[in-house]
Design goal:
Blueprint: E1 4-12, H1 16-25, E2 32-38, H2 43-48, E3 53-63, H3 64-77, E4 86-93, E5 96-98, E6 101-103, E7 113-123, H4 127-136, E8 143-148, E9 157-158, E10 161-162, E11 166-174, H5 179-187, E12 198-211
Antiparallel strand pairs: 1-3, 1-4, 2-3, 2-8, 4-12, 5-6, 7-11, 7-12, 8-11, 9-10
Helix pairs in contact: 1-3, 4-5
């Protein structure tokens, strides 16, 4: 097991800074806040274009020895929010490059796996199609981050300038027993049948929990 963890939190827009402050108070060195959008919680809502909300996605790399304390601090900071306010989970970080040094190594702590994070990167505009397929296989929701591809020397040019297509990066967290069927359903989406349209991969996650008031 790695000596480091990536804590990923997904909360409503403008709430990311509060989570970061709580994490810093517990020993985290800081984090990065990205802006994304949550997709509708039902296929019907997706068809109507309703239910989408702006989201803050917060990435924080922490030492494994401080992970539990930081996670607890984040959870405590959200107890005044409504139930289902956000999500939090962690992933392994095998190596960390920081201030000119490369860190890695193993420790003896055991972490219980609680699911899988499926990441899909596709050309902009196709995230909703991917999410529709994922829901049919048992996924409940996802978060989209705006991104862009990187140009290569042989990419198509327009007036001598490389065309760098915009991308959608879709993050879906599912129970481990649903991962294979969701990945299979995603792979059958028409837009992913064409070469160069996108990629999908999965990563194990731990410590998954919902943020906000407990019922």
């Amino acid at each position: 097991m790695s000596s480091f963890k990536m804590i990923i939190s997904i909360v409503p827009h403008d709430k990311g800074e509060a989570l970061t402050r709580a994490a810093v108070q517990a020993g985290c060195m800081g984090g990065t806040v990205l802006m994304g959008r949550g997709l509708a919680k039902s296929n019907f809502g997706a068809i109507l274009g309703t239910g989408e909300t702006k989201k803050d996605i917060i990435y924080m790399v922490v030492e494994n020895s401080t992970k539990d304390r930081i996670v607890e601090s984040i959870i405590d900071s959200c107890k005044g929010e409504k139930s289902g306010f956000g999500q939090l989970f962690t992933c392994e970080v095998n190596h960390l490059f920081k201030a000119g040094a490369l860190s890695g190594g193993e420790d003896s702590m055991n972490t219980k796996k609680s699911g899988d994070m499926i990441t899909v990167i596709v050309n902009k505009g196709y995230a909703d199609d991917i999410m529709f397929a994922a829901r049919k296989a048992g996924a409940t929701g996802g978060t989209v981050i705006n991104a862009r591809g990187t140009a290569r020397e042989d990419d198509e040019k327009f007036f001598g300038v490389h065309i760098v297509p915009e991308k959608d990066m879709l993050i879906i967290v599912v129970d481990s027993d649903k991962k294979d069927q969701v990945m299979k359903s995603i792979s059958e989406v028409k837009c992913l049948k064409e070469a160069g349209m996108g990629i999908a991969f999965s990563s194990e996650v731990s410590d998954f929990c919902l943020l906000g008031k407990t019922k």
